[in-house]
Amino acid sequence: MPINPYYDEHIRALADVMSGARSEQEIRERLRELAQHRESPEPWTSPDVAVGDTGVPGPHGPVPVRTYRPIRRPATSALLWVHGGGFTGGDLEMPEAHRVSGELALRADAFVVSVGYRLAGDGIRYPVPLDDVHAAWSWLCTTGLPPGSDDLPIALGGASAGAALALATALRTRDHGDRTADALLLAYPFTHFPAPALDTATAVEMSTLPALARFAPQGIEHMVRSYVGRITDLPTDALPGTAPLAGLPRTHLVLSGYDDLRPSGELLHRQLDEVGVQVTSYLADSMLHGHLDLTAPLPQVEESLDFFAAALREAVRPMSGSAAGVRATAGLHTAAQQTPPVG
């Protein structure tokens, strides 16, 4: 399936930025101009979900979190959600944080907590972002749940770099005797360095994309240096694809078809399966990396959200013998895609 035509205009704009820019500073300025001229959608909102902001204690100071509570029915599960952004970007307002959290609260009757962890840069490096996510998890599991819902199943999830932080937090809780997650929800995870290579056919199709829509090896290396401070002797909970993975909860992966980091998610699937962790994947096959950060109602975005919502419902009522159960255990499913990985 070709790259979703939704991206055509944005790809042309990125190609124009690259063709006319002469320095990194000029590229950054032109990208800011491009962002300012793009239509800003209204922030996600729903009369059926109450949204609130608070802070939770952490080892490096308070950690901002945003909560999403279903109004019409009691929450049947909870989720700690971690946005992406290459460890150095992203916030609680981006669609990958705000819209995803709200939609999962709405679709799965889940109490969702989105984490505004400290970003790498300006002297902040590993393990600070991970410590923030772990602190938010500890708060949710002890005092953060709505009154009377201490027995809710609690899932842990994130997107891209946020998926790495979520997976690393799951490993910490497994190893340190904390409450472990009942399920993991990981979108287009970045969990291995060096990143595995794309298959030849996808690499050929993506070769026509402008560099700003790709994760080149140099860009991936820059992400790792920004986060950890080096690219050698990496801690196993920084890029946790190298960590022992046995004993993790059932894991649900959403992957983007046209994504230089897709092989990391595919390898993670194989690794989890090899050590006996139940794992299912959904492939948004015409999409670029980061498609959950899109606001357009594309089928692949909706199906990705539905896949995660079903995983949250499954944590409450395990599926067996139903059509839903057959779909959940089928291994790999396909769908569509969203926005390019700029930044």
From TrEMBL:
PANTHER family: AB HYDROLASE SUPERFAMILY PROTEIN C4A8.06C, ALPHA_BETA HYDROLASE FOLD-3 DOMAIN-CONTAINING PROTEIN-RELATED. This is Acetyl esterase/lipase. The lineage of its organism: Bacteria, Bacillati, Actinomycetota, Actinomycetes, Kitasatosporales. Residues 79-291 form the Alpha/beta hydrolase fold-3 domain. Signal peptide: none annotated. Keywords: Hydrolase. The keyword Metal-binding does not apply. It comes from Kitasatospora viridis. One of its GO terms (molecular function) is hydrolase activity. Residues 34-68 are annotated as: Disordered.
